[in-house]
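SEVERITY: medium
COMPONENT: batch folding queue
REPORTER: lab tech (J.R.)

DESCRIPTION
The queue accepted two submissions in a row. Attaching both inputs and their returned structure tokens so the on-call engineer can compare them side by side.

ATTACHMENT 1
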Amino acid sequence: MFINVIQKGRSLFQDFSQVSSPDAAKREALANPLFSWQATYVTYQRKKTVVLTHDESTLVVALVDINAKNRQTMETRFWDQLRLLYHDLGLSTADFQAYQRVSKLWQINQMVSRQQVGRLNLITPAVKAFLAERLMDDHKLSRKLSHIMRKTVTGDTVFWEDTPAMLATDQLVWHPAEIPALTDQSALQQTWVTLQKTAKVATAALESEDNRQFEKVAHQIQRVNRELIAAFIQFAQTKYAAKTVKSYQQALDFYLNEYLANRLVTVLDDDAAEVGDLYLHGGSLTECKRVQRTMKKFYQFLVQQQLMTKSAYQTIRSNLDESVELVLFELDEYDDFYD
């Protein structure tokens, strides 16, 4: 069983077995939401309550007053509370034992998706509200929280009453994780060489002031960019949630192929880091920041593929940050002028 813990709660789970490969564990957890739980804690009156939400159903297990002295008991307490929830659902002891046997022991991992973290963020205010009502019993608190409906990725609503069918013994099967496709390194290297050649041609096209040559080179840059973007997206799909990957795709398509390419700028050029210029051309500050974050991830990918050096990336990252900071500074100056 995967217990995917938010960063702030990792120290509470340090006594349990940790996954050896977070990326591989993430893929396996995403393929098996029935055996995956998200975990965090909330603090009320200086006491920590650990909250675990099931990735598939509405089930929530709350463990009140966890501290350094008793944190080793969390796994035992978790199974005790889950057994009681099974009983509340009308499921048998044999059903519970089957789930416990197939799930196996806790394996502590990092968060696996923003959507699952969203479920945690929905539950935690309710935890605080119930604690304020003096609902301090693990079982009563877990049962209350488990009745809070949830939304799936497809937009469907899942209720407490749907849980027994989800936990039926014939559903208790581990599914193989999707194996990420390997990036064709030689093809990517060739694409990078093509980009370097195109960048030199772009410089000449800018100096020539020939409109037809300008458009031709812009199309060449866009074609090479599409190959680089496709490789990055293939890589991103193995690490990030679908919503995040879609955001990356949209940001790169816009910034590299609509904005930069039509100015004959490639990712090799210093000007590619000037994302703050988007604001000067009508873009929103939110858009600038989204492109900034995406470009950092894109350049990190280029470093991992040995297409760019770490020192070059560090320079570009600094320039990306400075470009957005300059926009923020100018906005503050503007506000001060009119105050």
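ATTACHMENT 2
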Amino acid sequence: MMQIFRVAGFCALGVLVTLTDLPLSAALAQSASTPAAPKTETFGMWSTTVDEIDTGEDLRKTCVASTAFLDASGTSGTLTLAISNGDALPPNGYPTLVIAMKNKDLPTGENIPAVFGDSNGKVKATVNAMAGAGGKWMLNNKPEISLALLRAMRRASALEVIFADIPVATISMDGFTKAYRSLGVSCGFPTGDVAP
């Protein structure tokens, strides 16, 4: 009888230790830092989002500015600029530009000739259809081309986009300048060369 009591006593002790440990581990889990919700702002037709990730070594910020548009047939799309404070920052590198839309008539492949601009000037560039991304085209991000395009975006009230002589859309630039300045403030880069 004595041995059964001891085994039962050890089991009770084990349950007691487990029960007293549970609230402590739950409290520790709650006190661990949770990632902050991304910061979002709106400037005219543009929205910006800043997402912070603590890698344990440093704080990485991904800064995104985006606007939605409709093409001539009513198909929706987005034009997005994205940069991280871990990337080459202006003037050495500029945000990546991506156009996303479901349009089977647009060309696919690499080095597709593209024209961006308005009646006051055009910027010739190339874009790549992103393989496996289904309807996304990324600007070949050469600093001098990106800078010229960003300046055209600042200058234009609406940006015409053409891929391989096929009109993509005319996209409102209402709020672009403030959105771009917000990216610079959030990700820590100068914006004077684009939006003085």
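NOTES FROM REPORTER
The longest strand covers residues 59-70.
No errors were logged for either attachment.
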